[in-house]
Specification:
The structure is a homodimer of 348-residue chains.
Chain A (H helix, E strand, L loop, with lengths): L2 E4 L6 E4 L21 H5 L14 E5 L13 E5 L12 E3 L6 E4 L3 E6 L13 H18 L7 E8 L11 E7 L4 H17 L3 H11 L5 E4 L3 E4 L10 E5 L11 H22 L4 E6 L14 E6 L6 H6 L1 E4 L3 H15 L7
Parallel strand pairs in A: 2-15
Antiparallel strand pairs in A: 1-2, 3-4, 4-7, 5-6, 7-9, 8-9, 8-13, 10-11, 11-12, 12-14, 13-14
Helix pairs in contact in A: 2-5, 5-7
Chain lengths: 348, 348
């Protein structure tokens, strides 16, 4: 019989219906993202040397002492060419028909170029490049927390056309927005309530539970980061990356934690490709809102959702997800892949 | 400048960024759902005459006095071949790792065959067939409200593979589930709060506002039903169908209202096809939970979301939607199409 699992960190429920089910490796065939051709490379506005094809940079990371010589930038952040939100005056307004309400579309919308190399992916980026990428995220969080109009900074990544990526060059995006996103507000509410009841961070408890859980949903851990398939996974191969130490803001990470976070992303990229070719995915970083430093009840985390299934009328109408692959099975398959390729650094 | 619009009926926000934008007709090219071929017709388990290829029927509607003679059933409801939920004992359980929680996957999962004819769609079904379909929905709502274990009945429809339909024969689905879906719970919370504050149903106020609003978002109305593009449309061509009279349960409809609801669905189907070829879409009916008859603060409604765009990392991470087409423009385009084809029965 299937289970209707409650996500302890949100109001999401998941129908885990594994009888309909597929094995983890059954998703492989339909997954792979196509490799770029030469025409695509020639017109890519995010490649090194094509800087004049992209909007102006708002941030660039260069090797120490490298700028101005024959060096390559390491990461680069540009304004989105088609921004959903722009700088401007933040106003809260009644619609002409009184009952409705809107804010002016003030905010930021940036494209973070993950690497100068078009063919880089989380799975094949050198560790140093992954570290630079995480440091670039940290830099952009620091930048936006100074904008008094903004309430939230969301960093995310779409990989592959099925996940909504319109460019194949490795890139992430940032949206700074004057409201707290409803999905985050829901997590904040649940976490606050848990803290009031248990005097403990819900996510700290979750990590502790996952680290000792049997059957295990752990996929990978290093000194400071834990990666696991969440109990109420909405989608096959959904993953969470979380710091083991309590931390509500991404930019609170130490250099050691940044290195471990970069390692976790690389190992995840590799093990997903091993099992599923090059699956399209969305990656979203959930952090505390701007101007709430050091929240005791909230804990930043990264959500990774491969786009292998199509949410339809049931999911859109209910907010409940039907998932046909148990996260326990997903975790085992990913662990086995990591174990075979990297005998060290493996969770249990 | 774009607007960040708040949906008054939920916690959803929408970034309306029309500068990036397309005109309503620009969505046509990518939209059309393919027509079925002969091989598909031969193996279709939902066609008349193929009843032995489908699971057993739990309900059939026949013409008056027709059954047993050389007649065709009008609509038919069968169990889903791969049910996410099944009959059984409802138990609430702690996971072995204490912190987590699940219910046994008890419930119902039915396929409603909209018509015996494979090529029927909302856009081309005779009025009588649409009425039979709405009556079949009513019958299934009545059936499931007697199941003491269930909390909610969700009727929905996926049209086209991009909307998650695995069969092209016209069909709807029903899921009966022992929890109130989070998306509905959120609407209930908002509506309850509005009622406490305003002593009026939020949806009744919304309909009154839309009926007199300028610029108009109304698409169609008849004596008892209103169809409009919602103020905070998450997707291009998102629509709502609502009864003008206050009603929290779908099965409260009178025969006249059932006829008008059927007409509204048919007109919507036609006008969407006129503008967009045969767009894939999801249709979801939101009603009050089982065993809460006559709720004063909640009002049933139908949500229609064409699947022309792909929610990606931003939408999944935030619960905020970026929409590039204003609902005011969508409503005008659909109204113009209706006006040209049907000079009578048109809203304003």
């Amino acid at each position: 019989m299937s289970q209707i699992r409650k996500d302890p960190a949100s109001r999401t429920w998941v129908v885990l219906a594994t009888e309909r089910g597929k094995r983890p490796s059954d998703f492989k065939a339909s997954a792979a993202v196509a490799k770029p051709d030469q025409a695509e490379l020639d017109r890519c506005p995010l490649c090194f040397g094509h800087e004049d094809m992209a909007p102006p940079a708002v941030f660039e990371m260069w090797p120490a002492g490298g700028r101005g010589r024959k060096m390559t930038w390491i990461t680069r952040v540009v304004e989105n060419k088609y921004p959903a939100l722009r700088p401007g005056e933040l106003l809260s307004q009644e619609d002409v028909n009184e009952f409705f309400h809107f804010l002016t579309g003030v905010g930021g919308h940036e494209v973070i170029v993950d690497s100068p190399k078009h063919t880089d992916r989380l799975a094949n980026m050198p560790h140093g490049q992954l570290v630079a990428l995480v440091k670039t995220y940290v830099q952009r969080y620091r930048f936006w927390r100074n904008d008094k109009r903004m309430a939230y900074t969301l960093v995310f990544k779409n990989y592959g056309p099925e996940a909504g990526a319109s460019l194949s060059h490795p890139h992430s995006q940032l949206v700074a927005i004057p409201i707290i996103p409803p999905r985050v507000a829901e997590e904040l509410d649940e976490a606050k309530e848990f803290y009031a009841r248990e005097n403990e961070c819900l996510y700290c408890r979750m990590i502790a539970t996952e680290l000792k859980g049997k059957p295990s949903r752990m996929v990978f851990e290093n000194d400071t980061m834990a990666v696991f398939a969440p109990y109420a996974s909405r989608f096959p191969f959904e993953l969470r990356v979380m710091p083991k130490r309590h931390m509500s803001a991404f930019e609170e990470m130490s250099d050691a934690e940044i290195g471990d976070c970069a390692q976790a992303l690389g190992v995840m990229g590799k093990s997903m490709e091993k099992l599923l070719s090059r699956p399209p995915y969305n990656l979203m970083i959930h952090v505390a809102p701007i101007r709430t430093p050091g929240l005791l009840y909230y804990h930043w985390h990264i959500e990774i959702i491969p786009r292998l299934t199509l949410p339809a009328g049931f999911e859109w109408g209910s907010g409940i997800y039907i998932n046909t692959v148990a996260p326990e099975e997903v975790a085992k398959a990913l662990r086995d892949g990591i174990k075979r390729s990297r005998p060290s650094n493996v969770a249990r």
